[in-house]
Amino acid sequence: MQIVLIETFLDLMETRNFNRTAERLNITQSTVTHRINALEALFARKLFARNKGGTQPTAAGLRFVDHAKALQHQWHEATRAVETAGAYERSMRIGLQHDLAAHYAGDWLAAVRKELPATSIYLEVDYSNQMNRDLGAGDLDLAILFTPHYLPDLHYEHIGEVHYEMVSNRAKRIEDVRPEDYIQAVYSPAFDRLHRQAYQHLSTAPIASGETTAIIALMTKLGGSAFVMEPDARRLLRTGAVNRVSGTDPISQSVYAAVNVRTRHAHQHRRIIGLMQMLLNG
């Protein structure tokens, strides 16, 4: 069975539209039809019902979808294993939330290399939305992220927290922080909700970002106030570049590990997650 048949089937399950799937896969509609017909011929069962109301999966199609996802995931794993074959027994692609990379990536990967010397690691620094999609498609083996999507094929677990503090190079008290000088941090939907609850009057700031590095650069260049990760706040306070804004409390951000449900108990996955958990809680 060709993997393109599986990928076309899964895309059509999402779009329920042959034309839309053709556009997304950059192929013709006739090619989509040919692939689905070929898949249906293999099973001798109709996977989709086409009528004036649109395209809907049949009972056979609905039964096949979970197996198709598993086949796609296994194909990606097999492809990477073959392509990266060399001195290492196995390889892994790992995703890490942008804001965690600066403070944890080095120590984390150093510990992983020590614990799993026969495993080669590719690290992708990204945002939660993309990492969830990549995990679902089998393009990542494991991710450390802020926002789980609780997709059917993925397993999430809470492994720790990081904290953000408000600092400023213009205001010393929360009463002195002006919305026009405020740089709003939007690190995750959960962080944004907590921020809006505590600082509703600052939730309409003219500038916002979802990454501490960018926020620090903006605050340094433009001046103002913002929430930054605790280690960055301590570093900036030591240099005298900013002061901690009195009358504010830190905002906590939960950190999650995410893997495919089929690998949730795999030894190397458990070791890699455990090492990050120790760093977060150490």
Strand content: 15-25%
Sequence of secondary-structure elements: HHHEEHEHEHEEEHEHEHEEH
- From the helix content, strand content and strand pairing, which structural class follows? alpha/beta
pLDDT < 50 stretches: none
| Shape, per Cα inertia axes | globular
Largest sheet: 7 strands, mixed
Helix content: 40-55%
Rg (C-alpha, Å): 23 Å
User: Averaging pLDDT over every residue, what do you get?
Assistant: 92
Number of strands: 11
Distance between the termini: 48 Å
Number of helices: 10
Set down the secondary structure blueprint:
Layout: H1 3-15, H2 18-25, H3 29-43, E1 48-51, E2 54-57, H4 59-83, E3 90-97, H5 98-115, E4 119-126, H6 128-137, E5 142-145, E6 154-168, E7 183-185, H7 189-198, E8 207-209, H8 212-222, E9 225-229, H9 230-239, E10 243-244, E11 251-260, H10 267-281
Parallel strand pairs: 3-4, 3-5, 7-8
Antiparallel strand pairs: 1-2, 5-11, 6-9, 6-10, 6-11
Helix pairs in contact: 1-2, 1-3, 1-4, 2-3, 5-10
Can you give a write-up of this model?
With 282 residues, this protein is an alpha/beta fold. The chain has helices at 3-15, 18-25, 29-43, 59-83, 98-115, 128-137, 189-198, 212-222, 230-239, 267-281, and strands at 48-51, 54-57, 90-97, 119-126, 142-145, 154-168, 183-185, 207-209, 225-229, 243-244, 251-260. The longest helix has 25 residues, at 59-83. Helices cover 48% and strands 23% of the residues. Strands 3, 4, 5, 6, 9, 10 and 11 form a 7-stranded mixed beta sheet that branches. Strands 1-2 form a two-stranded antiparallel ribbon. It contains 10 helices and 11 strands.
